[in-house]
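Final report, Chapter 2: Outcomes

The project's central promise was a pipeline that accepts a single protein chain and returns its three-dimensional structure in a standardized token representation, suitable for archiving and comparison. That pipeline is now operational. To close this chapter, we reproduce one record exactly as it appears in the project archive, with the input sequence first and the structure output second.
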Amino acid sequence: MISQKKTILYLNPTAHIMKKTPIRYDYGIISRNNIKADRATTIKFCQAKCKCFGINGGCPPYSPIFQSLFPRYKNLFIYYLGIEKETLKFIMDNMSNWTALKVTNKILGYMSLRIGNSLEPNLKFLSSGACKLCRNGSLCNYGRGIKKCKHPEQRRYSLESTGIMVESITKQLFGFKLEWFKKGFLPFMLIQVGAIFCDSGKIYKERFEYLIQKEACRHVNPKNRQREFWV
């Protein structure tokens, strides 16, 4: 299956460069039996590449294995949000590469997190990256050496931390492989992926379309909102 190219404009009238940022997105349902999970591999990668390993409650070694999570649900609702290469290049031409990556990752990361939290405000939602629940207040307990989560029912485990091989999902559902930033190389798209354990997933599809429209114009005064966020 090749993903349809759905795109919405993320509006931020006060931004210096990115007043209208095209966000590509799609979603689908996948059987949990078709998800490739190898926690030994993902933990090794996390330990080598991620600074959150061992100091964030949503990351290894504190995250559970995928197979143990919500066994009563047969499917997962999967979505992704992405900023394509052409947009990334334009942004990098107008600010430093590091700043551009930080800004775009922040837009995608928090947009994905807000959508996922609205769809399912509990452990059934798996996000991309470390849990951010306590980042706006006190630090995560695990980073302070306290091995007990302050909000155990709202903690956000990342897909990779449970052993899920995310690329196997994007290839099956959306028809593309993941690419990574390297020196002198831009991936075709910067991506955030979210997942929710479910049965049919129909309710999430309908809700997702509403939420992404809401997110696209969250910085716009409601009185001035128009349907200009579609590409």
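Archive annotation: The helical segments are 39-49, 85-94, 97-119, 166-174, 202-216.
This record, like all others produced under the grant, will remain available to the consortium after the project formally closes.
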